[in-house]
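Please, structure for the following, as tokens.
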Amino acid sequence: MFDALRIWTDRLLGRGSAAITVPVMDGALKPNRVLDEAHIVATLPAIDDLATDGQTLFASAGRSVYRLEGEHCIEVARFDDEITALAAGPDGLFAMALGGHTVRVVRGPKWAEVARLETLGGRPLKSVNALAFNGADQLLLSDGSNRRGPAQWAHDLMEHGRTGRVARWRFGGGDGAEPLAGGQHFAFGVLPESDGAVLHSESWRHRIVRTGANGREVLLAELPGYPSRMAVASDGGFWLTCFVCRTQLVEFVLREDAYRERMLAEIDPRYWIAPALSSGHSFLEPLQGAGVKSMGVLKPWAPPHSYGLVLKVAADGRILESMHSQVDGKHHGITAVAEHGGALYASSKGSGRLLCVALGASA
């Protein structure tokens, strides 16, 4: 009863969950050009996830896995479905999600299958989008939505999806996966901590949650973007990607049910008022508030239809630094990061490029 009353008063007064405000990017979040000025290591259309075993960097793009050798990416494996998540573990183990519905653990160099997972809690996997090894026989996974596949994340956002799941799979014992969190507003990203707790991203609620033996707590909230995959930082804390950013216009549409439902029913998804991994390809794209070109120039501070953002987060949840590809930039849709060889690598799915940034470049 009290929850229903709070929701009603929030809608009446335009506050709380009914507010359409978006946090300002300032302080450690102050925009810069680090991602746009990053070294372009390779162009890999459909590049998505990154993984490292401590010695070698791997990248997934479409149905293929690539290994970084110097300045070149060499294809090392190809599968029969799109790779929607990738992880490297100890003793030559790798894990990948295929089509969002199957998780396979394999052992290199011949990629022989060790274990396979297709269900969670008796229900089929649908949208597995992030994996992380937790020791030699455990794998953490996030299943973004139980209704939409990985490529339909914008559908899930516009439908107010809240069917995401996070789980731990003890593949070494042949057991099924153990659910850690359900009812997630799009689960997209998992990272183990040394004390046994698990960090996971809840994209549509703009936050990072810690789940451990003492329950669940919000580590980082009210982000200006939709958080996704994470990677350990060598000097403590972790790196966090925000694969798209929030705008007041999208927040408004999400709260206007009649308009939103007609848009979903009548408009091509490419032209929804919704965030995207890349933009500027068609004049049919919706105008994002003040995002109008003046004399052929799109202002970098315009509301983003697409954006590139990586955050450095301390163990206690403080944002320490950020790397940006602004609205007028070219390296949008950052879906994964990994430290390797003293540098930070990032996959820009929006541009189809593997980027390399010297650590400390945004300081």
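The longest helix spans residues 2-13. The two ends are 48 Å apart (CA to CA).
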